[in-house]
Amino acid sequence: MGPHPAVAAIRLAVRRVLNDILDDHGRTPGQAPDERPPSPLVLVACSGGADSMALASALAFEAPRLGVRAGGVTVDHGLQAGSDLRAAEVVQRLRELGLDPVESAAVSVGREGGPEAAARDARYAALDAAAERHGAAAVLLGHTRDDQAETVLLGLARGSGIRSLSGMAAVSGAGGRYRRPFLQLDRQTARTACMAQSLPVWDDPHNADPAYTRSRLRHEGLPALEKALGKGVVEALARTAQLSRDDADALDAWAGRAVAGVRDADGRLECAGLHALPPAVRRRVLRRAAIEAGAPAGSLFARHIEEVDRLITGWRGQGAINLPGKVVVRRQGGRLVIRQG
Fold this sequence. Notes:
Elements: H1 5-24, E1 41-45, H2 50-66, E2 69-76, H3 83-96, E3 102-106, H4 115-134, E4 138-140, H5 145-158, E5 171-172, E6 178-179, H6 187-196, H7 213-229, H8 233-262, E7 269-270, H9 271-276, H10 279-292, H11 302-313, E8 321-323, E9 327-332, E10 335-340
Parallel strand pairs: 1-2, 1-4, 2-3, 4-6
Antiparallel strand pairs: 5-6, 7-10, 8-9, 9-10
Helix pairs in contact: 1-2, 1-6, 2-6, 5-7, 5-8, 8-10, 10-11
Enzyme class: ligase
InterPro entries: Rossmann-like_a/b/a_fold (IPR014729), TilS/TtcA_N (IPR011063), tRNA_Ile_lys_synt (IPR012094), tRNA_Ile_lys_synt_N (IPR012795), tRNA_Ile_lys_synt_subst-bd (IPR015262)
Protein name: tRNA(Ile)-lysidine synthase
């Protein structure tokens, strides 16, 4: 008798990602030992919740069968009393699954961008550091289709364009470090897989705390949408994410090609050439140029780019525009000059 269907589903998702990682590192399962490059190390980021525990269990099962080394990292955000004890418990559970190396990383969460963004920034910094320290080929993250749907709705609320609707990528980070095997699986599948394997899970109280935007969306917003529109909302939003990502990638590539045709020898942008581009492409060229000039990507919003765009589409002798990072944009003689002031 085979594994429970939920367990089979999470294992298949992880197996596919591990095979992708092996392909990326030039190793084929079944190669003779003397022909193989060193076994890549894959880490799982695990909070102890159902999604990441299911992911850890699937990694522990599949990795040895493919000749991949498997380890784990849990991040202690220090935001709750006893968080260090909770992290120690997660480390123990990961070791019991057979993962090695396993470690807990304590971080200090700042306040920039709000509590959720600050915690996320601290978490990824710790995961980056762990991956570098251990020479890991990849870090697996337990985001599910439900997480993807929430991310799309949060992007929609920000009103910052198609890229914000594209959600989380299956592969992201420097060199494709982060992999999300569960983006096509729902949250309930991961929880069921844990139950079927008698894996203890921890439900983070922050996930039910109405002080957090994502928590309100999860417990109030999405259920209201499902009640009004039917149960297919989560799947439809996840599909929207993929379609939006494909479109955004195509427009980014177009903008990358277009910039060479509108930039002069001094690095200035020709307004006539910019005006001839479709708005979606032109704004991407402008955003890229602002970032190259020193504007921080995370602080550069759609309203900033719209202001710069009006120097091209609504030119009436406006003065210079100040962008984050002390970047100044001004129009001079039919050219757009973007540089730090």
